[in-house]
Amino acid sequence: MKSCIDPGHGMSNRKLGIYDPGATHFENGFEYQEASIALRYGLALKDVLRAQQLDVFMTRDDETDHTPVGRRASMAKAAGCDVLISLHLNDFDDDTANGLEVLYGNPGSKALAQKLQDALVDVTKIRNRKIKMRTDLAVLKFEGTAVLVELGFIANDQDREKLLNAQIRDAVVHTIAKIVNPEFWFNHG
Length: 189
Ligand SMILES: [Zn+2]
Hints:
It is a single chain. Helix 1 crosses helix 5 (about 165-180) and helix 3 (about 110-125) runs antiparallel to helix 5 (about 165-180). The protein is of the alpha/beta class and about 190 residues long. The protein contains six helices and ten strands; from the N terminus they run βββββαβαββαββααα. Strand 2 (about 10) and strand 3 (about 20) form a beta hairpin. The chain has helices at about 35-50, 70-80, 110-125, 155-165, 165-180, 180-189; strands spanning about 1-5, 10, 20, 25, 30-35, 55-60, 85-90, 100-105, 130-135, 145-155. The strands form three sheets. Strands 6-1-7-10-8-9 form a six-stranded mixed beta sheet, sandwiched between helices. Strands 2-3 form a two-stranded antiparallel sheet. Zinc ion binds near residues 9 and 22.
């Protein structure tokens, strides 16, 4: 079993050679970028999965990896992945919009989406926006189990502060790893 971790956005995501920061939010002179927060979560998740002896493929490891959004699913397939987890933060014009949601692209991915949704809401106490099927998103066209986690809203102060908290990040990546790791379910029911 091999997992693909896809930190959303980044270099060449939408246009070759152009860095896509994803959703951004300015607060006290600092610009928060979805791409860098998602990358931090992705790298932390990679470390936890590798520590559990699980194979991991990263669509991108840093700010310079060229990863067009339309090629990520096929890259994961070519790397031999069974499951793809894309990590994002949500955005909306209204800064009061908040909550966590897990998107999935095919009926076979619904069970994983629901498990992640329940566990991540529990561990973050971020509002439950429920799982949603989305057949239009490129990464969710992955041939296999694929989910896209919208961890919270970058412009919402409560969501963002939680997601920037290292302890919450640690809890989130351990929770995802636990759910993805089949050994855990085998050993712990
Ligand atoms: Zn995004």
